[in-house]
Amino acid sequence: MTELNAAAEARAEEPPLIAMHGITKVFGSLVANDHIDLAIRAGEIHALLGENGAGKSTLVKILYGLLEPTEGEIRWRGEPVRLSGPQAARALGIGMVFQHFSLFENLTVAENIAAAMPPEMSLAEVAAKAREVSGQYGLPVDLDRPVWTLSAGERQRIEIIRCLLQDPQLIVLDEPTSVLTPQEAERLFVTLERLAASGCAILYISHRLEEVRRLCSSATILRAGRVVATIDPRAVSAREIAGLMVGTALHDVVALRGAAEGAPRLVVRGLSLPPEEAHGQTLREIHLTVRGGEVLGIAGVAGNGQGELFAALSGERLAGAPEAVEIDGRPVGHLGVTERRRLGAAFVPEERLGHGAVPDHRLAENTLLSRHGTGGLVSRGFVLADATRALAQRIIETFDVRKEGTDPRARTLSGGNLQKFVVGREILREPGVLVVNQPTWGVDAGAAALIRQALVNLARQGSAVLVISQDLDELFEMADRIAVIHAGELSTPKPTGDLTREAVGLLMTGAAASKGTVHAH
Amino acid sequence: MRIELQQRQAPSAVARLLAPVLALAAAFLLGGIVVAAMGRSPLAALDVYVLQPLSDPWALQEMVVKATPLVLIAIGLSFCFRANLWNIGAEGQFIVGAICGSTVALATHGTDAGAWVLPVMLALGTLGGIAWASVPAFLRARFGVSEILTSLMLVYVAELILDYLVRGPWRDPKGFNFPQSVTFDDAATLPFLADGGRLHIGVLMAVVAVVVAFVVMGHTIFGYRLRVTGEAPRAARFSGFSERRTTFIVFAISGGLAGLAGIVEVAGQIGQLKPSISPGYGFTAIIVAFLGRLNPFGILLAGLVMALTFIGGEAAQITLRLPFDLTRTFQGILLFCVLAADALVTYRVRLVRGAPAQAAGRAA
């Protein structure tokens, strides 16, 4: 270890591997990056932190040559460079692992890796190199498997291998653990530490503070396009870091567990549903009961049937047998989403833009989306424009939705504010049953806390709240019971107090399913 | 070096309003170049195409008469296009509407059937158009077949049926072997708005359609449903609007109005069936719908503009001996300019040096 430290000290003398000085990027009237300074040394794992809209992705795009800065200078090993495109960035030695994978589902792992390599390399050569890298850094993948059979963690390993084959000196990872189970994340950290030890610099973008504190030796925090602090995350508490990101102190969600057990309000019995899309997930024999007064959480890695379950519960897809889904004792499996709403149910889908709200419609019009059939907004087929505006205003005030202008288009709101609007729209109707898919996905910490509190409060007033989420911390904070969805099957819900993160993580990988099946997703 | 389209932060409202006007100006400029290339004076063509019809009362009436089917059809199409469904076969629905409505006119020919004839003709014409449009709607909703192809192909089927009827069973025995039906009785002809004028009551129907469409589109939950379906299909599903039902309804509306336009044209303007009852109204109406920005009053204006090109085109054939195809060419240029202007309102064109962004080009 002393040798490593000595090496690190020696490196500290050199100019940083990459240094960005006074980087400014202006889009119209919006200053996305405002004189940002960022330096990363070889062998360092550096975190880039900030809420959504703080300017992280703009900065990363500049670093990867996808955007040109309006102002500012980038130095690579002390020399000024111009990154005119991703090829120029790669030529320097900058590699990028994106949050959304760009893989061909129907090709094998080896073929996907070869697609990113120079055409003169044969598939066998590519496979040999990939195997070497995969062994060296602990990134096991089966090169001959088609990608669609792989889990998100395995897919990410392909992206990382693909990136490593370019021999990068700086690797940028954008929210790498957002799709991983805790165990998969742990494995990724080991790989990243090995990479750093071999001298590679890593820029690690995340909003999960605990893992940043565990992994990174320095962190740059952005807020509203500016650097607010450069810190050693190991020396500062997660709460303090969050405070720096948001600009204000945060409140914990008050869960007030142990509310009286109410009657079952949402019951699912033996729900099975084939997928609608080619690589979708089949739902297998799902049973669950949500009682009035409780929050039931469903954990799971993305793509294990969460979207399909949401569609079946909301009635966007009919569940076949009427008895498969019951709301307050009424079989509704054969009823559409409007009829289910009339029975007192409400739904919040995962995607805000284009699913939970129409991007180009104003907020007043967006109140109609889920509430046109439940009274008050439409009379004899005519839209009551004043009523929609009044309702939008009520949502905006109750849920502290920040926006520009009196009635802006949905797309102009930040992710957190639009999510507050969409969740608020459903909560204000005082539903007996609320099903939420990823309530705080990509939402800033302040908005996330407000949304979680609102969901818990709704349950405490006697509603049944079902929360589907990939964020384990969120579920442990809010849910009374937690079940795990894996490969379209739902585990038996258990009281949150009896569970550990590790136990839930194991269920998320399907390891505890004890059926010995190879997991397809 | 490459060309990139960048979405504008906030498209200017003024630009949005000016876009059709600028598109029209650009189309005239390009049309003038084509005319010059054919060895005629562009100024003379402008005079014949635009200025003369606008300064002649008879031609002005004619313009309104020609705009009537265009507006009726385009209003129907605007419902489809709003919902992001593509009925390209209004021409066929127009012809089938004309045929279905005409059955009554031909069956009662020479009898003293009374005032019921005309309403029944209009109703049958509308139903014929609906039936013809239901075929692509059904194929799309049930089997996912592209409605663009099926609706377009049915145009040719309709044209051939009409051709067969007027050359065969429905040919006027006293018509010197011309492929045309008998001339409709008065009871089967749309009354004129004023004696000695050219305007028939079909003109009023077009105006009513414009007003009704305006109210439905802007103020009803049905109009909202169409806009949500067109702009965000997943949100429409979340809203509980069935895509299948929307498909059937908008095809019925557009087919019905096209069919109505067909029987109105035959009963009001031509007075008999013949192979060429339409100079391509069903296709031109697509341009009208877009030139009018899918706004009912915009469509009314755009219909008048496009009607002008038909009248000017006829005049140019006679005085400048320019082929009628030039009119079609001009209409095509106009559609192109309208779409380009729309794109430029929403996007900014940028020349970018360097290689294309490869990461974005890879498959997901």
Automatic annotation (TrEMBL), chain A:
It comes from the Bacteria. PROSITE patterns: ABC_TRANSPORTER_1 (PS00211), ABC_TRANSPORTER_2 (PS50893). Pfam families: ABC_tran. Keywords: ATP-binding, Nucleotide-binding, Sugar transport, Transport. This is Simple sugar transport system ATP-binding protein. GO terms for molecular function: ATP binding; ATP hydrolysis activity. Residues 18-249, 268-512 form the ABC transporter domain. PANTHER family: CARBOHYDRATE TRANSPORT ATP-BINDING PROTEIN MG119-RELATED, GUANOSINE IMPORT ATP-BINDING PROTEIN NUPO. Belongs to the ABC transporter superfamily.
UniProtKB/TrEMBL annotation, chain B:
CDD domains: TM_PBP1_transp_TpRbsC_like (cd06580). One of its GO terms (cellular component) is plasma membrane. GO terms for molecular function: transmembrane transporter activity. Its main location: membrane. It is found in: Cell membrane. It is a multi-pass membrane protein. It holds the Pfam family BPD_transp_2. Keywords: Cell membrane, Membrane, Sugar transport, Transmembrane, Transmembrane helix, Transport. The chain crosses the membrane at residues 21-43, 63-81, 93-110, 116-139, 148-166, 199-224, 245-264, 276-292, 299-318, 330-349. This is Simple sugar transport system permease protein. The lineage of its organism: Bacteria, Pseudomonadati, Pseudomonadota, Alphaproteobacteria, Hyphomicrobiales.
